[in-house]
Design goal:
Length: 135
């Protein structure tokens, strides 16, 4: 049996009743999400460790409680160090271990470091200075 496709949509500032598939009286048209919901499985019992994006994403990606990380602020800004250590098992890696191809599109807010373009690639120097980043 083929593995099912999995599409997880996480949207900031979207409530349960904002999508037509859950609320026919919604004032926001969501025909594509409604179709995905009609043709797939709807999960209707979800919980979040925080009402803000960073802790919620961290919890979803790692299954861990964000407030136990080194970060003591609720948001991770774009050039902050990553809050997920490279060795930490994530939802994406777990899916990959089961043979899935994965991708993450959109807002990350879990920290980024960019390799400096002023140094050779073999040197592991990362920077937050935009003039040094080869976007």
């Amino acid at each position: 049996m083929a593995q099912p496709n999995v599409v997880f949509i996480m949207a900031d500032d979207t409530g349960y009743g904002d999508m037509g598939c859950y609320n026919p009286e919604s004032l926001t048209p969501t025909p594509h999400i409604d179709r995905l919901a009609d043709e797939g499985i709807r999960l209707t019992d979800a919980h979040s460790g925080c009402a803000l994006c960073t802790p919620t994403r961290y919890g979803l990606m790692t299954g861990r409680f964000y407030w136990r990380t080194f970060k003591r602020h609720s948001l991770v800004m774009p050039y902050d160090p990553p809050v997920i250590p490279p060795e930490r098992l994530t939802l994406g890696r777990l899916f990959q271990q089961q043979g899935y191809r994965t991708g993450c599109i959109g807002k990350w807010h879990l920290g980024l470091w960019h390799r400096s373009k002023k140094l050779p690639k073999y040197q592991r120097h990362f920077t937050i200075i935009e003039d040094e980043i080869d976007f």
